[in-house]
Design brief:
GO molecular function, one term: aldehyde dehydrogenase (NAD+) activity
GO cellular component, one term: cytoplasm
Protein name: Aldehyde dehydrogenase
CATH class of the largest domain: Alpha Beta
Pfam families: Aldedh
CATH superfamily of the largest domain: Aldehyde Dehydrogenase, Chain A, domain 1
Strand order of the largest sheet: 10-13-14-9-8-15-16
Distance between the termini: 70 Å
Radius of gyration: 25 Å
Number of domains: 2
Keywords: NAD, Oxidoreductase
CATH topology of the largest domain: Aldehyde Dehydrogenase, Chain A, domain 1
Bound molecules: nicotinamide-adenine-dinucleotide
């Protein structure tokens, strides 16, 4: 990865605005071609991409294909097919709320590209989180500055080489580097900022955006809870929760962060977590090819320190290999107020907290920041409805973890501390367009609207 020279950044911004002003990105043919080029880039370089992500995160190639590459390939192709429909002018002449005399006024809404936009992506799902925003922005007809995370430098370096080869360099530019470079990028005026990352930096981004009144999408994280109904099959719950936890070694915005269990189920849940662990990693996880590692020493030490400071009881795992930056999936039973309940763990720790009943579980979730996802294991429909009413979260998933990422028809995003705005396919397109309205009022209707002209007289009230 080569850091973008700071003096290049204003030039990149100016050139993206200049390209947008030519309106070349408005063309549907241009958009479709660029989207298919993204698909081609992913297809022709899948191995190099998987290798780069492995070098950064130790993420197994299978996981890269299953949870990132195939999804983006599919979504680039779908977007290319669907963009004419998404971008089509919407005629509201037959809208049920339109009074008959306004029918001939041609009320229309045109999804219109916002302009030169900025996509800032994080390290934890480097491919999906850089490409999904880029797909949406291209589909929308914007020009794009893609700021890649410096933390995944192998992936960033690869994309720095690939994007100019596959995409229109007048319209899609990559910026690499750290805080200095992002700060310079944020000094520029953008027409939309799409940021994925943590809530602390989100506040810096939002403050910078406010200076230019730039609209924002904030895809953030937080602590995603799991609620487990004591009536649910503990073996299935444990397997599904553990699978969600081990993905990318827990370094996922939708990773189950902590589980709320009733005291009567703790032992059985943990027993089944151990059983699932043994079947996923018969030779242990620390040397397994099916388990990613912690991104860097800073995060390794952060997670290690959490495990050192917790007052909780480690019921599973806890082993680590510092040289390899590996930490076993670790289950810790804690009491309220424990350090593990304070902030997003973003690592392979599953915290267990005992609650009296399902009502207390909902109360606990409600008393904390609205999570990105709330997972609930129950077949009880009444309980499902109760949880829906009693809590708030960006997404609410019953009886599994993580699978919402594969369901491309659902809008994805947070609420409150977990962010705002929605993405995936048309929803990402919507982030980068605004609904431009138009009317065309014919001369012939003058006699129907003459009442509006002053001088205002009594007959104006004869409705
Ligand atoms: P990160 O450290 O890679 O930062 C993200 C981006 O912000 C990078 O491009 C980085 O250069 C930039 N940045 C870092 N410090 C900055 C600063 N001081 N000023 C301006 N820009 C700065 O990634 P991260 O924030 O550690 O990512 C992990 C977080 O992202 C977690 O909280 C996770 O839950 C969240 N996340 C959310 C989603 C979602 O879709 N909702 C997806 C993935 C991750």
């Amino acid at each position: 990865m080569i850091d973008t020279p700071l003096d290049e950044i204003p030039k990149i911004n100016a050139s993206l605005h200049a390209t947008f002003a030519t309106r070349k990105t408005f063309s549907l043919a241009w958009r479709e071609h660029q989207l298919l080029q993204i698909a081609r880039m992913l297809q022709e370089n899948h191995k190099a991409i998987a290798d780069a992500i492995y070098a950064d995160l130790g993420k197994p190639a299978f996981e890269v294909y299953m949870t990132e590459l195939n999804l983006m390939l599919d979504r680039a192709i779908i977007s290319a097919k669907r963009v004419p429909e998404w971008a089509a002018v919407k005629n509201l002449e037959n809208h049920p709320d339109l009074p008959p005399h306004q029918k001939g006024w041609k009320p229309r809404v045109t999804p219109t590209p916002k302009g030169a936009v900025l996509v800032i992506s994080p390290w934890n799902y480097p491919l999906i989180l850089s490409i999904q925003g880029t797909i949406g922005a291209i589909a929308a007809g914007c020009t794009i500055c893609l700021k890649l995370s410096e933390v995944t430098s192998n992936y960033a370096g690869l994309l720095q080489q690939l994007i100019p080869k596959y995409l229109d360099q007048d319209a899609v530019r990559v910026v690499c580097g750290g805080v200095q470079e992002v700060t310079k990028v944020l000094e520029q005026k953008w027409d939309h900022i799409f940021y994925t990352g943590n809530g602390t930096v989100a506040r810096i981004i939002a403050a910078a955006a406010a200076k230019h009144l730039t609209p924002l999408t904030l895809e953030l994280g937080g602590k995603s809870p799991v609620i487990i109904d004591p009536e649910y099959d503990m073996e299935l719950a444990a397997r599904r929760v553990l699978w969600g936890k081990i993905n990318n070694c827990g370094q996922v915005c939708v990773s189950p962060d902590y589980a709320l269990v009733t005291p009567s189920t703790t032992a059985s849940f943990v027993e089944n977590l151990k059983k699932a662990y043994a079947s996923f990693y018969p030779d242990g996880s620390l040397k397994s090819d099916s388990y990613a590692r912690v991104i860097n020493m800073q995060h390794f030490n952060r997670i290690k320190s959490l495990l050192e400071r917790t007052q909780g009881k480690v019921l599973m795992g806890g082993g680590m290999d510092e040289k390899e930056r590996r930490i076993e999936p670790t289950v810790v039973l804690v009491k309220p107020g424990d350090v593990l309940l304070e902030s997003e763990t973003f690592g392979p720790i599953l915290t267990l907290l005992e609650v009296d009943d399902m009502r207390a579980a909902c109360d606990y979730v409600s008393a904390n920041d609205h999570p990105l996802v709330l997972y609930v294991f129950t077949l009880n429909e009444q309980l499902q409805q109760d949880v829906l009413k009693a809590t708030m979260s960006g997404n609410l998933i019953f009886n599994d973890t993580f699978m919402q990422m594969d369901v491309k028809v659902l809008p994805f995003g947070g609420v409150g501390e977990s962010g705002y705005g929605r993405q995936v396919l048309e929803n990402t397109f919507n982030c980068f367009t605004y609904e431009r309205t138009s009317l065309d009022i014919p001369p012939e209707v003058e006699d129907k609207i003459y009442l509006r002209y002053p001088p205002y007289t009594e007959h104006a009230f004869e409705v």
